[in-house]
Amino acid sequence: MLHHVIELRFNDDTTDAQVEEMAAGLRGLREQIDTIRSMRMGRDLGLRADNFDFASLLEFDDQAGYLAFRDHPAHQQWVHDHVRPIIAERAGVLFLSP
Amino acid sequence: MLHHVIELRFNDDTTDAQVEEMAAGLRGLREQIDTIRSMRMGRDLGLRADNFDFASLLEFDDQAGYLAFRDHPAHQQWVHDHVRPIIAERAGVLFLSP
Fold first, then answer.
1. Which residue of B has its CA nearest to A62?
2. Domains in chain A, CATH or no CATH each
3. pLDDT number for residue A3
4. Following DSSP, what letter does each residue of chain B receive, concatenated?
5. pLDDT in tens, B22-69
6. Does the beta carbon of A78 lie under 8 angstroms from any beta carbon of chain B?
């Protein structure tokens, strides 16, 4: 299984509505991109001051499944419209696990 | 379920052996800390230049399970001995998902 791990730190002026719209958009991608095997996401609980604000965990069968997601127009539109405008920082890791 | 997501960027001089020792130590914590419900980890595949180097994904039943892990002496020793010396950056998120 290929794990796509993204952590986001939002801008100071990012609103809850913008975060919810971004998350709803990500959930919507599941209907449009059939290589996504699982999707979990959520906002940080605030137990540690230096944590990021949000994480999404997606799973794909393999690298081809991930690349289909990465290059899909709906994903790229979502990043342009709902992610880039509201984030100060992105931390990503893509790893394979048995 | 509570998701504990950690991404690490290693120092330039961090060796593969140090990374493997860190990962082996994390795997070893599963025997010592029984509140860990699942654990997955791996090194980034290198498909995107600005990605971090390593991610670990742990799951706990709830916040109490996470705090037992966070405050456990074995975990704190592992961070001191095997994580802090080899990392340039840490990105963490702790979130609840249904």
1. B45
2. 2-96 (3.30.70.100)
3. 98
4. -EEEEEEEEE-TT--HHHHHHHHHHHHHHHHH-TT--EEEEEE--SSSTTS-SEEEEEEESSHHHHHHHHT-HHHHHHIIIIIGGGEEEEEEEEEE--
5. 999 999 999 999 999 999 999 999 999 999 999 999 999 999 999 999
6. no
What is the total residue count of chain A?
Answer: 98
Q: How many CB atoms lie within 10 A of CB A30?
A: 13
DSSP state of A82: I
Q: How confident is the model at residue B98 (pLDDT cuts 50, 70, 90)?
A: confident
Which residue among B5, B48, B53 places its CB closest to the CB of A55?
A: B5
Using alpha carbons, list the distances in angstroms from residue A41 to A26, B23, B28, B38, B89: 9, 24, 27, 17, 22
Whole-number pLDDT of residue A53: 98
Distance from C-alpha of A30 to C-alpha of B71, rounded to nearest angstrom: 37
Does residue A28 sit at the B interface (CB-CB below 8 Å)?
no
Q: Decide if A69 contacts A33 (C-beta within 8 A).
A: yes
- Window 43-62 of A, Cβ < 8 Å to B: 43-45, 47-48, 50-55, 57
